[in-house]
User: What shape does this take?
Amino acid sequence: MSNIREVARIAGVSVATVSRALSHPEKVSESSKLRVKNAIEQVNYRPNMLARNFRSARSYSLVVLVPDISNPFFAQVIRSIELQAQKKGYSVLLGDTQDSNVREQEYIRLVETRLSDGIIQLRPMSDHFHETNTFNFPYLHLCATESSPGPCIRVDNVAGFEHMIDYLISLGHRRIGLITGLKGNPHTIDRFKGYKQALEKAGIAFDDNLVAEGEYVIWSGVNAAAELCKLHNRPTAIACMNDEMAIGAIQAVKTHGLRVPEDISITGFDDISYARYCDPPLTTIAQPSMDMGTIAVDMLLRMIDGESLSDDKHVLPYDFIVRKSTTTVEVEV
Amino acid sequence: MSNIREVARIAGVSVATVSRALSHPEKVSESSKLRVKNAIEQVNYRPNMLARNFRSARSYSLVVLVPDISNPFFAQVIRSIELQAQKKGYSVLLGDTQDSNVREQEYIRLVETRLSDGIIQLRPMSDHFHETNTFNFPYLHLCATESSPGPCIRVDNVAGFEHMIDYLISLGHRRIGLITGLKGNPHTIDRFKGYKQALEKAGIAFDDNLVAEGEYVIWSGVNAAAELCKLHNRPTAIACMNDEMAIGAIQAVKTHGLRVPEDISITGFDDISYARYCDPPLTTIAQPSMDMGTIAVDMLLRMIDGESLSDDKHVLPYDFIVRKSTTTVEVEV
Assistant: This one.
């Protein structure tokens, strides 16, 4: 492996100039930069940026913690984070925690040991987590909830889900099934609250039999919807806490010999790319995944630069999207 | 921020012991380890691992280059890479290159500058790329093709696609449409070869009119299938080069007032999670995403350890999966 002295010799400049051309190219003349560049290529030099990072105590990387990268909603958010981070000279360390606290701790250690400069948390954390954890490094909640402390970004999950149930009620539905996500997940709690508020406003009694538990993945939507279809007094609509479970629910309803939406309307949450391509295309709530990633990176970098953003809370707007998986109830029995 | 001396003082051990407890815990007694651990917690010490990495010239991270993280097939492979990497003490730097050479170069620089120890390339690269690029660091092609030089892992895309077309021919299809991926993409080239070989074996003349170009994303499958449906002499089956385009094709065929599979059979490639939940569920070729990731990490770490694996080429088996999107042709006109 060649070294920086060799590059300087071939380029006909000082070692300091080579170093400057690498770390602060704006301070070096175009002609020197070109000579350094050519010399680097000629001798196949790999500058050791670990040394630079050691000196600056910066890693120029950030960790994104995600509960499930195979969920396309998270993939969209990660894509936007990665785009913005790269613009700002940062790389993204991916931590797929699979909802495991142990795996999460290992990624947190990357920041604690300065191998990364900060964390963007995509996994919604419980109130208990917030009460018992404080971090002495930049840590930002994306996909946060109402009660998240510190800097965070979220959409209003309560209002979004309530909006969806309001819509189903406006179509004449009164027996509205619910497929929840994992119990205890803060998004599940918020969306459940939205469901109950909408029923209450409309004077519809809450019926525990109409609630089936899922796990935010497709197959769990299949199983939960199959249960609801078997009810003696089955629902005329099923609201799902995410699109993946809704896609599974559509299949289960059809397998049961029923039609979507004529016999059962189905709704989702997130607006993943498949939502418009399932049959029928899905009525859902769109989260602004692109904005979420961009704003998160900008906020985290300000924190890395030492700003205190503890009261910086962004609530981003959701979109309500009506497609063909929902329709009116003609006669309520 | 507290420092290592403070930790040593509180733990009642030497600075060297603290350092050893962090870097080689197996060399330190259990009682010292516990005292160090408690002291670290007490003073909230964050050891600077950048210093360790600078000394060892290792970053303990690897870069995964992916053309599109929002494609669920790649998300599955990344998940398996990340699982195996974490088991081995490595973190994963994610490079979503969006098929851009410029963005790819920026990630390659991370390894060139030793901020990462090696690269796993998920983007299939052209023969021209292989001829004009050599890397003086660990670099491994996953999702490789027949002509990929150096260590690589792949499924046989030619054989897999040929298998699918053989199957359609066995069902009586003779006008078999094809929705390709991006032109020039090595997977597109391989799968096209499989298509042509199957037709030739069966004595079916290749018909350029039956070929429509897509881009490996859903909407491109919608557009391409819409074209094929409008043909005067339309195909009785459409083979798509990935599942996403097949999901789009199913929608386009239905929008055209035709039935899948009775009027047009549809096939995919990859077996993403949505393949079994679309309507009808998709006949496809499954790639072993879990094995691909595990083997790739193990190979890359051996290269990082200095082994030369230049002739190590793994061809992993694919699975042929028949679901309900394909059926026989009763009468050929």
Notes: Chain A is about 45% helix and 15% strand.
